[in-house]
Specification:
The protein has 2 domains: 4-71 and 91-117; 124-232, Immunoglobulin-like (Sandwich), CATH 2.60.40.420. The longest helix is centred in the first third of the chain and has 34 residues, at 38-71. The protein is 39% helix and 24% strand. The chain is of the alpha+beta class. The structure holds copper (II) ion. Copper (II) ion binds next to loops. Copper (II) ion binds at residues 130, 168, 203, 205, 207, 211, 214.
Length: 251
Amino acid sequence: MTPPRRHLWIAAAIWAVLSIVGAVLVAGIQIIPVIASREAGIENSAFVLLAVLSVPVLMFVVVGLAYSAIWFRANGDEADGPPIHGHRGFQAAWLGISFALVIGLFAYGAAGLVDIRGAQTADFEVQVSAEQWAWHFTYPSTGATSKELHIPVGQRVHIVINSDDVIHSFWVPAFGIKQDAVPGRTTEIYVTATVAGTYPGLCAELCGFGHTNMRFTTVVSNRAALKAWLRKQKPGSEGSQPPPSGSESAS
Ligand SMILES: [Cu+2]
């Protein structure tokens, strides 16, 4: 007969080994498929931390269950085992560790949120107008308009969002940002793109028959290329775009 303490140590050792191996494996994965902004990087590290910390919790349950099922299997006897009452140390550890995990994750998440949403300053501004079923982008620095979103790499961009009809949602998955476009109200979001390239954007709020096709392309380029592109856009050339101010129309 193995003494009970020995079982505890063996199970704890298996738990520790599986937790470390699992945490190392999970720590290496990128959870957001494409990361092209500072914000998406912060979010990905939060997801990874959450996944890493969940491994020892999962293993605690799995190892406890599997070890008991193998070593303490009762053949044919289906009666309940004797109840265990009031183990103060165990209860304190259970509550203490759970509390520390939750508060620690909350603190990490809150710091990340402040990092993403905190500073309300930007180097570049774009106004976004959503309607059934299209996106329009206006660049206040030149008055240019476009159907694609063009922003500079490595600079904090202020995106100001309005809707002409129903609720839409501005979403660029690679940037890790999503913001509702609400009729009669201006919403905003900030992003710092870190990798030049072209990224898909889409409406993330079911907004009617054409919702599926309410997509746009985001082009991230260096400041010089962006300036050259902006110079080529004639102000208001995009057509159906109303002037940037007073464009909210209630319908
Ligand atoms: Cu929409």
